[in-house]
Write a structure and sequence with these properties.
The chain contains 2 helices and 7 strands; from the N terminus they run βββαβββαβ. The chain is mostly beta strands and 108 residues long. The protein has one domain: Umud Fragment, subunit A, CATH 2.10.109.
């Protein structure tokens, strides 16, 4: 699932627009979401967090995914909610912490 950046405010929150169906039915194509780009400066990413991250092979392509597990080396296995329509760690492997750009606010 990709995104389009819409705005950024003074609180280090960006608004993004969902592109695709990999997080459906949680998020729908075209839906606007808030991403806290400083969340992980205050806390450690956890299993079940919904994140904005870089694709490991396409640095110009960002993804919205759910952290499914964290391995003993601190790498993150991320998946889409709609697994039949998601490109995720099942195809490209786990991602490094520095690929995580922020935490999606699921209450917005």
């Amino acid at each position: 699932m990709g995104y389009r950046r819409v705005t950024m405010d003074e609180k280090n929150t960006i608004q993004i627009q969902v592109c695709g169906d990999s997080m459906s039915p949680l998020f729908c194509d075209g839906q606007l979401l808030q991403v806290d780009t400083q969340a992980y400066a205050r806390q450690t990413p956890e299993v079940s967090d919904i994140i904005l991250c870089e694709h490991p092979y396409r640095k110009d392509f960002l993804l919205i995914k759910k952290i499914e597990k964290i391995d003993e080396h601190g790498k993150f296995f991320v998946v889409g909610v709609n697994t039949s329509s998601s490109t995720d760690s099942r195809s490209f492997g786990s991602i490094h912490r520095d690929a995580i750009l922020g935490k999606v606010n699921t209450n917005a």
